[in-house]
Design brief:
Elements: E1 7-11, H1 14-24, E2 28-33, E3 40-45, E4 48-54, E5 62-67, E6 79-81, E7 87-92, E8 107-109, E9 118-119, E10 125-128, H2 133-136, E11 139-145, E12 149-150, E13 156-159, E14 162-169, E15 171-176, E16 183-186, E17 190-192, E18 199-204, E19 208-215, E20 220-223, E21 239-240, E22 243-244, E23 246-248, E24 256-257, E25 263-267, H3 270-273, E26 279-285, E27 292-295, E28 299-306, E29 308-313, E30 319-322, E31 326-328, E32 335-338, E33 345-351, E34 357-360
Parallel strand pairs: 1-4, 5-7
Antiparallel strand pairs: 2-3, 3-4, 6-7, 8-31, 9-10, 10-11, 11-19, 12-18, 13-20, 14-17, 14-19, 15-16, 15-18, 17-23, 21-22, 24-25, 25-26, 26-33, 27-34, 28-31, 28-33, 29-30, 29-32
Amino acid sequence: MEIKAEFRLPTQELRDDIPFYTKVLKMRMDMIYPADDPTIAVFSGHGLRLRIEKGAEEAPGTLRILTDDPDGFADGQRHLTAPNGTKIEIEELNPPLVLPPVQHSFVVRRLADQAPWVIGRAGMHYRDLVLDRLGGAMIASHIRIPDGGPVPDMVHYHKVGFQLIFCVNGWVDVLYEDQGGMRRLNAGDCFIQPPEIRHRVCEASDDLQVIEIGVPADHVTEIDHEMELPTPHERPEREWDGQRFVHNLAEGAAWEPFRLPGFECRDTTIAANTKDVAGVQVVRRGQGTPQWSRHDADIHFTFVMKGTMLLEGEERAPFPLEAGDAFVIPPGMKTRYAEPSDDIELLEVTLSGAFKTKVIET
């Protein structure tokens, strides 16, 4: 069974449209009728089939043409209007990734504030952890799947500069391009998804919860209808835009003193595998007394996974925090993680990964 779909556009005089769509837009005319006084013509090209019909009731609309050579298409014009009134936009097929400058701010997002959950891609529930998104520089999402089982996902990829998936609760099975068979992410584990690596979320436990960090905030997700996962070859050393896929396991990880007194941490090897684009550490209570400090990271995000603490900031009222809360500290701001409970556990994400902290002795 053969099926063809057409998108209809109106015209007042078909003879004026034919040279525009064939010569300027480089489309092919496939059909025209009636022969003695044509009122309908069908054009195809660029993955589209257009039916231009005299007297059609639809509005002329806008046609976007994506090409890898926009300056060589339509004599370099980016905005045109066809004789039938349709507006034409010529855009780049694969525009370069733009990373907006960070608009630094002190952000505290508490679960108790009843931040709304929204239904996003593949039926997953999303909660925004950084409302201003630092001027579009990053997005931090608390994602959950309440009811476990197969996930209605497709093979896809993200056009990002950096993306982290950290499992807070439950487990999820994911297939990745060139990374062998099924990968299970358990609580405490994390993935680094390099830019444009193909993957598919397959199955999740009940009450799966993950934290997803993406740079920039607004990025495109594309479906790959051709690739089948798993791919036949396993290539763990492959890089995407200078980054490797990372599957870091919490089980058996070594703990060491954290840069802030009173805490210890386990490193997730993210800094090493992203060439210091980002750093990801899990932090818990250690020896010593918490001190005031400042950092110089471009982005410094923290999510409270367990326990409680008091976030103190210069010229700010203290914020009592508990599991599910998140905060962003701008560079140069004086803060202290006071009164941490014995079971405190934090997820810290920094961009760039190589940065300095100055502890301020009291």
